[in-house]
Amino acid sequence: MFSETKTNDLQVPQCPNSITSVEFSPTENILSASSWDNETRIWSLNSNGTVTPKAQVKVAAPVLDHCWSSDGSRLFSACTDKNVYQWSPSAPTPSIIAQHAEPVKCVEFAENLLCTGSWDETVKFWDLKTPQPKLTLQMPERVYCMNLIYPVLIVGLAQRKVLTYDLRNASKPFKNQESPLKMQTRCIAIFPDQSGFCIGSIEGRVGVQHFAGDDKKNFAFKCHRRKDDVYSVNAISFHRTHGTFSTAGADGNFTFWDKNAKQRLKQFPQVNQSIIATAFNKDCNLFAYAASYDWSQGQSGYNSQRSSQIYVHVVADSDVRPRKAGF
After folding, report:
1. Of 46, 48, 172, 247, which residue is most buried, by most CB within 10 angstroms?
2. pLDDT by residue (tens digit) across 164-208?
């Protein structure tokens, strides 16, 4: 399916194998990535256009997700050993900060609260001062994906369930719905203005949903398809200034979209593996994407000769600026 990589984007050195997530520090141009080989690594993106490895930690189990604290001083790695580890780039020695009864699939941080979602069908909140969670929310299914822009938390679950919470009153969801898509949820992202969300699935479609107002504004569209081949939508990331967004898929492509005009802004060259994860930096002028095996075909589909890669794309404003409908 895949050809040789065609991208001219900056390639990050010394990547881990089988990447699970990528993130930028909220305070500076430092990039991080987690992986199935038990690692979380970080790199400095320098003003001269180079990338320098900065630190890394290795824990006891695969890391399914990670995030930064709001001040960029700490990272949190969510693992299959049911633990979440805390560590600092300046002192990369991990310590357990949170625990679940099953593997921890998702981790988010906002307003001095660590939020963790697990296959044990719970979402927990931690204030980092005590070993017990500040609040535990019982979910109807396993947590598959999650996004938090305070005060809105959205959780994508197994069986296509989607729960949305206002964390100022988190005792029950303010919206409990099924995904508008027909198949398993893969990724979810809140609009920057918190008025709705985008959801992606394994069927190569994205749903655009609003929390309130006219349902006619909600729609779904096909993407990451090639003739009769259908590929999973693995990642959705929003440009926080323009409100446009990216999708990335198992076809090895990423694309920028304008949801309001219902149009594609720009599609980029294919890379030679599935794109697993994406992230904009704090200024939204850099876009990181990770090319790695997605394990959709199990062990039989794994090729040890094909290494994982992370690329950084310099974002042109013309690539992400909204356009008038009908362009």
Report:
1. 247
2. 999 999 989 999 999 999 999 999 999 999 999 999 999 999 999
Cα torsion at 113, 117, 122, 123 (round to 10°)?
20
Q: Residue 4 domain-assigned? A: no
Give just the sign of the alpha carbon dihedral 46, 51, 55, 57.
Answer: positive
Would you say residue 126 has pLDDT above 60? Answer: yes
Is the pLDDT assigned to residue 18 strictly greater than 80?
yes
Tell me the Cα Rg of the chain: 19
pLDDT at 6: 60
Give which of 138, 142, 137, 220 is closest to 179, Cα–Cα: 220
SS3 274: coil
- Count structural domains, the chain: 1
Q: CB atoms < 10 A from the CB of 250, how many?
A: 23
Domain that holds residue 51: 10-320
Closest CA to 160 of 137, 180, 139: 180
The answer as to whether 5 is a domain residue is no
Closest CA to 156 of 172, 137, 177: 177
Q: Using an 8 Å Cβ cutoff, are 282 and 25 in contact?
A: yes
Positive or negative torsion for Cα 316, 52, 235, 194: negative
Are the C-beta atoms of 73 and 80 separated by less than 8 Å? Answer: no
Residue 251 lies in a domain: yes
The pTM for the full model equals 0.95
Question: Which of these, 287, 283, 274, 297, lies nearest to 20 by C-alpha position?
Answer: 274
CATH number for the domain harbouring residue 110: 2.130.10.10
Is residue 327 included in any domain, yes or no?
no
**3-class state of residue 169 by DSSP:** helix
